[in-house]
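Re-run with default settings, no changes from the original entry. Doing this only to confirm the output is reproducible before filing.
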Amino acid sequence: MKSSIGSGYGIVALALGIGLFASAPASAQKKYDTGASDTEIKLGQTMPYSGPASSYGLIGHVMAAYFKMVNEEQGGINGRKIKLISYDDGFSPPKTVEQTRKLVESDEVLAIAASLGSATNLAIAKYLNAQKVPQILAGSGAAKLNDPVNFPWTTSFYSSSIVESKIYAQYILKEKPDGRIAILYQNDDFGKGFLTGLRSGLGSKASMIVSEASYIVTDPTVESQVISLKASGADVLLIAAGPKFAAQAIRRTYEMGWRPMQIVITSANEIETVLKPAGLEASKGLVTSQWIKQAGDSIWNDDPAMQTSKSFFAKWMPEVRYDDQISIYAYSVAQMLHEVLRRCGDDLTRENLIKQATHIEGFQLPLFLPGVTVNVSPNSRLSWRQGQLSRFDGTNWRSFGGIVTIPESATKE
């Protein structure tokens, strides 16, 4: 599957009055690399439009609609239309490599932007860095991508598994200092990052982890894993799984009458796609970490940014639920990409693009929780290191406590 789209935006800045997407930076002269010109900026990405993670293909569709809006309503960014070429990789690393090489060598894109997946992004990182092609806003929380020495042309844009699991470790140590922890995780760099981060966050009390069970994305269910974890006698369960398997784990835990303190990671806390299939009663009491506003939560009903995003989906993607958190994440990725391109001004070289993408300080995206800001530097490629704990009350997530920040020094394992 291939989706080729264009770009242009600005109504969020107008609605919020915060100067987002202001006028382009001044530039002495225009500079271009492959994929950029006076009239166009060509970008590429891969998405799982098919395969075991196909629900995340929605990200590519939302980004397509966003940049279509930008092109038609704003004439592009800094006067240039955005052409985003999005190929299906089926969430298969070998296919990701094949499609990415096509984007670079045949389609001649300026950069790879927001491709989804930990294993898939890791599969192309060496190639893109060797070619000095920016790999920006990679949709992955894998710690291995936070490596400016080996991957200087790479940045990520998702909740870091290390950061998130350390937030949970702090919470467990406070609420259940003598707890026995079981963890269900996806058997790849994505899931293993949570296991690593949890152990590190627990420090001298890492022995609290009494049981571990993994799955692969092609498994039909995780029922046997949940049964095994229950048998360990654990009274804390961390579910570091994708949406499908998280829903299965939540439902099976409830059906078995097992009532541990349950924590579900942010990528699997969507009410519509995870908690409702699992059962709202079964999901009651779950704890998670939030970094982005929950669409559909009444607390944000009058929030200007949420109203703007709602209007966007109503006009440009009426078939999509605006309160699907995957949609809200995709919308924010598109906004971040827009901002990075805006900052490039008339210097559309790959070197300047990665420079702008790695010099972001204290940037507040409209749909991020207040206080969760984007900070990317030449020394740290994680987009943010904050989150706020929330508990599901059977209807909505309810935040408690303040914003938790993990120091940059604690994000590298």
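DSSP finds 13 helices and 18 strands in the chain. Residues 325-344 form the longest helix (20 residues).
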